[in-house]
Amino acid sequence: MADTLTVRVYNVRFGDAILVTVPDRDPASGVVTQRRILIDVGNAPLVASREGGDDTVFKAVIDDILAQLGDAPLDLYVMTHEHLDHVQGLPYAAWKHYQDLKDRLKVRHVWMTASADPGYYDDPRHAEAKKQKLAFEAMHAAIRSHLALEAIPGRESLLRILANNDPSKTGQCVEFLRALNPEATTFVYRGAALEGTHPFREAKLEVWAPEENTAEYYGRFQPLDALAGSGRAGDATTAVTPTPPPGVDVGAFLNLVAARRAGIADNLLAIDQAANNTSVVFLLEWRGWRLLFAGDAETRSWKTMARQNVLRPVHFLKVSHHGSHNGTPDGALFDAVLPAVAEDARPRSAAISTWVDTYGGIPHEPTNGRLRARCTLRSTLDDRAALHYDLEFPG
Amino acid sequence: MKARVPVIVKDPVVAQYKEIEPTESLLVEEDVFLDGPVSPRVAVLDFDPATGGLAPRVPFQMPQSPHTEGTYLAPPIVLGGLVDPAATAVSVFGAVHKTMRMFEEADALGRRVSWAFDAPQLLVVPRAGEWANAYYERESHGLQFFSFTPANGPTIHTAHSQDIVAHETAHALLDGIAPDLYGSVTPQALAIHEAVADLAALLCSFRCRELAQAVLARTGGLIAKSSVFSGLAEQFGSALHEYPSQLRDLNNDKSLRFDAAPQNRVSRSEPHALSEVLSGAFYRVLLRMYDELRKQFAAGDVVDEAVIAAAESSYVQERVDRRLGPKKTAGDLGKWAKALFVAGERLKRTLLRGLDYLPPGDVGFADLARAVIASDQASHPDSGQQREWLREEFVRRGIVASRAELEVQTNVHHDAVAALDLAALVRSDYAAYDFANRNRALLGIPEGVTFEVRPRLDVTKLYWHRDDEKREVRECLLKVAWSEVESSPAADGLPPQRRVLAGTTLAIEWTDPPLVRAVLTTQRHASDRQDTDDLILRLLADDTLKLDGDADSPMGGTLRGVVAAEVSNGVLRVRNAGRTLHVTRRAGHG
Questions:
Q1: A-interface mutation test, from B38, B51, B562, most A Cβ less than 10 A away
Q2: Which residues, in sequence order, are bridge partners of residue A376?
Q3: Contacts of residue A334 in chain B, CB cutoff 8 Å?
Q4: Which of A325, B117, B196, B553 falls 20 to 30 Å from B296 in CA-CA distance?
Q5: Which among A235, A248, A329 has CB closest to B50?
Q6: Nearest CA to CA, how far is A70 from chain B (Å)?
Q7: Are A316 and A349 in contact (CB under 8 A)?
Q8: Whose CA is closest to B583, among B563, B556, B559?
Q9: Is the dihedral of CA A47, A51, A52, A58 positive or negative?
Q10: pLDDT class for A234, splitting at 50, 70, 90?
Q11: Does domain A4-222+262-394 match CATH 3.30.1490.190?
């Protein structure tokens, strides 16, 4: 299959690990080299014994990646964004199974999302993003303390989102990835100079997202009732469940108390979405094929891409955010990437990497339906026992 | 039972530099008062920001005898000083009751307003957390008042601003009067909520005797010179630096007309900005009424009956004497105070009764304008000067294209209405539905369309006529509503159509035989549809509007910060757009 581009989607349960093998012809010499891009390796944190966070799956995945590489180097590793379900696979494998993983992978180039640059938030141009990030981290800490103290409706779901956004755990993984090849690591964004940041001669790479200034990916917080144990001066160390005073309807009172804490979910989702929206979204063009790898970009990022006029029809879509509705917004945004009428006769396909019972609303059957109406849809759920599935694009 | 309650007049910083007494003493009358403060219709729940638990309740001291008043035992509020949370709780309790009383008086709605939620008490949270905001939320039955600390200034507590408390209470009351506004996605319907809340805050400040006297004395009776009344929530607004010194300025020339001066044009899809057109129109009429009365009172106590009827004059004099004392009304200041009081009461009556007449559904400013004209005609048939000014303002600001659009038939005989058993109509849903179904033409209900009948209102209000003493008039208000489907903008996964509500109010005078007081049906124009398109697209772009499951919270129910919409059979239905009044990106009180 020397003249076939292959997209291998690994079954890492709820997470992403994608190996793209590209026969790359040198225009000068005509020599074709099999070059490989590895996009993210990770899965959801193991919370509440959910299958989606089963880390034992990484061993076989890494084994296969190394087998695919043989002695060849990994040409490009892409870390789309700083979420555990996208970053923890390589560090986990290195700590557990392959202490020499870095040497075995021989990563030539690394792309990481712009805000993963250690100096990103010290840049005065990113002062607003820094302010937002600090506020989000403080909110994350407050909610974590509160959830540890009080059982509230939907606690399990909230803990999963909380864990996936844990800045300390994610930070360790990101640090590992920065060290894969520090001299050849590029923090990418739309408009960044890409020359020399990858080895491709024939294939073309184009970054559609994120924007360099990530401030616009942060949503707003809902105000919250005092969160027990949130670390602020005077905070209680145990959760206080207020009791209704005499003369006040008990049901109405408890409804009010619940409403005042309901913003926890909004705020956790805002934290989650802000990170997702910093995903590196890039287009790979090769011999007429257009393949889009969308990370976990959600609605706000897609809207920004539309505003920046970068969206174009593609033949392959790595479905964003494990098949959530927010990852593949409907309407004009969807039509821009997978129009109802294809531009040419090439077959179109999409790939989902996901698992069940991990995050609410994912997988999202109406979104799958929309995708199936436009292209062939493959999912890691098609054969849950399989290590991977492949999509091929003949040259 | 009565309770004497100290209420913060203006936020303490404003009070200090305006040299105004920081509090006024209000008398609240309720069946019972409990520690809290708690009354049968209002409960203040003071959550301690540090713990999330309730702070100690403020004790109520019972009256010492049947003819005296009880009181809440909170530390006093001192000019420029810190306000104890217990005093804040008591103040906000009083300010909420003050606003309620203003709406419900016999010379306004003449009835107790039922909350839009199914519970007897409005739950008021004076220390809701850190945020530059305050809001009414139907879903949690409550008012939430936040605090914030601007970069260069002391912490601002929104619960200390009587303007803001009155504003939010008015939202709650208006939701009880016209619940469809909260669920409407028509920008003008949401803007009515804002404008009425702003005007209610204005009227509450008029009712503060000390404040009114201070402003009149300082301005020489020319209140248009001062922003104390027309500028809402000065401390809050200046801290936000959104406006020169206040949150919104009612003394404006904002307009819907396309040929308006650029500085007076507003975004037709932004409810807060849009509201200034409506509130500005009413405020301008109020100023004209005040100036006219000021001149006439200066010449003597007899006023042109085109402005106020004789019976109303004597009623007003009685109330002014009671409020100010006969001696205080003698000089210029007293006459100005009297003029201000009358002008304020007129605006209150006209506006609030107009809301009672407002048809249900996705209404616009023009619908409210017609309802206001009709209600004013009913209240003051022989004193039409204010109606003329209102008509002029509504046309001048492009709320209607011409005076002809404001024509409403009032006081007409209708055979079916004359034959009505009104007691049965009020009591029986079946009787009301049957009447409406048999009289679709009268009520504007399209043939073949299913409709719903709202609970009827049986209200008794004070009316004034030229040759009559004040008299109580009993009215029955029948409201019917039905759905209509219109096209939606093609964008971002929206279905091609959306559902809007249309409706009619039939006001019937409870005479023998019953008389049609007014029939008002919603009139929706192409511009309303375009404005609705723009608002929906803006909410989508802002990630505020979420369709179906996207609005679901992992904690159950709907995410708190979103406007939820349902799609059924390709038709969009927005459920709680009223949330945009406090969840917009723009900081402010909703």
A1: B51
A2: A349
A3: 493
A4: B196
A5: A235
A6: 44
A7: yes
A8: B563
A9: positive
A10: very low
A11: no
A residues 332..391 contacting B (CB < 8 A): 332-334, 360-361, 364
Chain A: closest CA distance from residue B493 (Å) = 4
Q: Which residues lie across from B567 on neighbouring strands?
A: B572
Three-state SS at B420: coil
DSSP code per residue over B43-112: EE--B-TTTSSBPPPBPEEPPSSTTS-EEE--PPP-TTSPPPHHHHHHHHHHHHHHHHHHHHSTTTT-SP
Thinking of the domain B2-177, which architecture would CATH place it in?
Roll (3.10)
- In this predicted structure, the answer to whether residue B236 has a pLDDT above a threshold of 80 is no
Contact B52 A227 (CB under 8 A): yes
HEC profile for B223-259?
HHHCHHHHECCHHHHHHHCCCCCCCCECCCCCECCCC
Residue environment code for A82-119, b if the CB has 16+ CB neighbours within 10 A, otherwise e: bbbbbbbbbbbbbeeebeebeebbebbbbbbbbbbbee
Count of beta carbons in the 10 Å neighbourhood of residue B355: 21
| Beta bridge pairs of residue B521 | B504
Look at residue B326 and tell me whether its pLDDT is greater than 70.
Answer: no
Q: Dihedrals φ, ψ of B509, to 5°?
A: -80, 135
- A residues 28..87 contacting B (CB < 8 A): none
Cβ–Cβ below 8 Å for A256 and B141 = yes
pLDDT score for B590: 37
Whether complex ipTM tops 0.90: no
Mean pLDDT score across all residues of chain A = 90
Whether pLDDT at A240 is above 80: no
Interface mutation vs chain A, best among B41, B543, B558, most A CBs within 10 Å: B543
End-to-end C-alpha distance for chain B, whole angstroms? 33
Please indicate whether, in this complex, the C-beta atoms of B554 and A157 are within 8 angstroms of each other. yes
Read off the pLDDT of residues B513-535 as tens digits, 9 standing for 90 and up. 999 999 999 999 999 999 999 88
* pLDDT score recorded for residue A192: 96
**Chain B neighbors of A224, CB-CB under 8 A:** 129
Q: Is A158 touching B (CB cutoff 8 A)? A: yes
The answer to whether residue A299 neighbours chain B at the CB level (below 8 Å) is: yes
Note whether A65 and A19 are within 8 A (CB): yes
* 3-state percent breakdown (helix, strand, coil) of chain B, nearest 5: 45, 20, 40
- For B555, the closest of A153, A227, A228 (CB atoms) is A153
Q: State the virtual CA torsion across B168, B172, B173, B175 in degrees, nearest 10.
A: 130
- Cβ separation B137–A269 shorter than 8 A: no
Using CA coordinates, name the residue in chain A closest to B43. Answer: A248
What's the pLDDT score for residue A230? 47
Give residue limits of the domains in chain A: 4-222+262-394
In angstroms, the separation between the Cα of residue B117 and the nearest Cα of chain A is 10
* B586 → chain A, closest CA residue: A220
Q: How far apart are CA B77 and CA B343, in angstroms?
A: 31
Is the CB of A245 inside 8 Å of chain B's CB atoms? Answer: yes
| Sequence ranges of the domains in chain B | 2-177, 209-396, 414-525, 531-583
Q: How far apart are alpha carbons B320 and A382 in whole angstroms?
A: 80
- What are the distances in angstroms from CA A134 to CA A131, A204, A224? 5, 36, 17
